Amino acid sequence: MYTTKGIRYLSSMLYETFRIPVGYRNSTATESMFLPSSFQLHPRFRDISAVFDYFIHDTDPGSKPVLCSTNFLEYYVVMQVQDPGKNPGMIVLGPTIPSLLSEETMQNLFHDFQVPRREQEQWAAYYRQVPQMSNKQFIHAALLLHFLVYGKTLEFHDVIIAAHPKDSTIQSGDDLRKTIAERRELRHFHQDPTHEAMLFQLIKQGKKEELLRLFPLLSDEKMGTLSKRSHLRSYKNLAITAITLATRAAIEGGLFWEAAYSLSDLHIQQIEELKEKNDVEKALVLALVDFTERVHARQLPNVSAAISRCQNYIFNHLYEEISLTTLAEITNLHANYLSQRFKKEVGISVSEYIQRQRIEEAKELLTLSDFPLSEICSRLTFHDQSYFTKVFKKYTGMTPKQYRKQRQLIP
Fold first, then answer.
1. Among 88-92, 298-302, 314-318, which stretch is predicted with the lowest mean pLDDT?
2. 394 is a domain residue
3. Are residues 254 and 390 in the same domain?
4. 11: how many CB neighbours lie within 10 A of its CB?
């Protein structure tokens, strides 16, 4: 079993290894530590004791590590340290965030928590210092912590299960039986799942007309209730669920996953701003049609999983140098074999495909931004503006300046 001195040493080693904050408090709360001492806690936590208290009241960790998230978008790992004959002490790893918060996310936090303007820079400074770590890496750190303390191995899913204990779920037994009885009596049954499957299959296939014919057949009454307090909120929740499923169907239909998820975000943001149920319904139809049309426009001859992965990578990294070596690494294929296979399946070489995609992106920038030609050229890794102009004209039949001027004349 551990000693306080041993826990202090362990905490120090964990911090030096992962460069994430580590805290410990003993069973009587008479002794605590937090590394690094220079780390500034979240403005809503007055001191380290408040952090420990937050997790004591909100979780029941037991001896397994628990991955916890806060309302402030942080993640912590919490683990009780059993001391025979005494109440358990606690080790806390974190906070961490998966990635640096965008300006938009920061503004949303300020809005949600009504942060006064005078305190906003303090919040922003806090998030700039929080270490970035994926949840996968964080859970591996938790598994190592548990092994070092208890000498026992856990599986990756053990942390996840511990983070979502069964006793924290809603008491749904009686509620479920009551809801089913009421629906039987009123003959208000949920939608036949085959209808929903048909809807999302049409999105996957890019069939807009069939989608529009099917959608009116999906009755509101058969959709279920996702909010007991607000019909508008319930319908928004249903719409968001539908968009989430449509996103997956669109990806399966060939839409690049980054484009699909970004499109999903935009449609959900729009729906959240609406105030009328009918407006939400119209927005949902437009969203489903949007996914379907984009899948239809994107549809290409069937390509293998390896080539699809290359295309997705290229789509996401147009502003970076892309080499055949990198594509070979992400597909686990030999570069020469990948090059031949790509040309056979897509019809053009890897380099020409990348070039075409960059020109398509250049067309978007010329239309939607005021960036000078030199900046667009640089952003898309064309190191010679005259070469960029030559390539652009090869695929569009006009120079970048002519293209921008033409697009500006279109109302």
1. 298-302
2. yes
3. no
4. 21
